[in-house]
Design brief:
The protein has 250 residues and is an all-alpha fold. It has eight helices and two strands. The chain starts with a helix and ends with a helix.
Length: 250
């Protein structure tokens, strides 16, 4: 029975002592906590600067920035500003007792030390999240095809309507437009593509490739890849073709 009472008493004592020790630790470790926060803010500033360099390089290459990266940069900026102001205020905070007596202002030291400890933990969390960033940017698809001039449409409206009706027919999977040079066949096809994607909503994405009389399959494949914002991993024409077929199925 006595052993049980001693065990219970030890646990109760531990529950009472631990919080007191922790609170006193804020006073005894005041300077350590302040310096630790200052170091962590500097470490976060370096990490933020490194990511910003990568972002700037990606933008110069015409890439779009991943949303999570932009949010992390904003989050890091907000924390750095708040933490820097806290450290500046800490330097100006009263450290002595009233009337300028040479004794520490325990209340001020406790509050500042506790706040610094918490902010240091927040800094670790933000910095750790930054280390988890694996991808900074991605290559967006090239701009969509522009519409043809209205005056051209009026003269070719009948042909345009015929092509649009053919596109809606599930039994037709290939449509050809032919005519003499200079009659604006390409312009008509551009308008068909624009109307099919933007107005009729027949397709999620419409891609055009310009094909010369002398076929260059790799060039045609690359035109499709550029418009779709994709990157080939295969080197052979057959491998690239298989990869394009895969893109169309996802």
């Amino acid at each position: 029975m006595c052993e049980i009472l001693l065990s219970v008493a030890a646990k109760v004592l531990g529950l009472l002592v631990d919080p007191v020790v922790r609170q006193l630790g804020y006073l005894f470790n005041y300077r350590t906590n302040i310096e630790d926060l200052s170091e962590k803010v500097e470490k976060l500033r370096d990490a933020r600067s490194s990511h910003q360099h990568s972002v700037d390089e990606a933008k110069r290459n015409g890439h779009a920035i991943v949303d999570g990266v932009s949010k992390w940069l904003t989050r890091a900026d907000g924390f750095k500003q708040g933490a820097s102001k806290f450290l500046e205020d800490e330097k100006a905070a009263p450290k002595s007792c009233l009337n300028g007596l040479m004794c520490p202002n325990l209340k001020s030291r406790y509050q500042l030390s506790r706040a610094a400890r918490k902010k240091a933990g927040d800094s670790d969390q933000i910095h750790g999240d930054g280390l988890q960033i694996e991808k900074i940017s991605y290559r967006p698809p090239l701009p969509e095809i522009n519409s043809a001039p209205p005056e051209v449409l009026q003269s070719r409206m009948l042909v345009l309507n015929e092509v649009m009706e053919a596109l809606k027919d599930s039994n037709i999977n290939r449509i050809g437009v032919w005519g003499l040079g200079g009659v604006r066949k390409s312009t008509l096809v551009k308008q068909v593509a624009e109307q099919a994607a933007s107005q009729e909503k027949l397709f999620d994405k419409v891609v055009m490739a310009f094909v010369l009389q002398t076929l260059d399959y790799r060039e045609i494949q690359q035109q499709f890849a550029d418009k779709l914002g994709m990157k080939f991993e295969e080197l052979s024409e057959q491998g690239r073709a298989a990869q394009q077929i895969h893109w169309l199925t996802i």
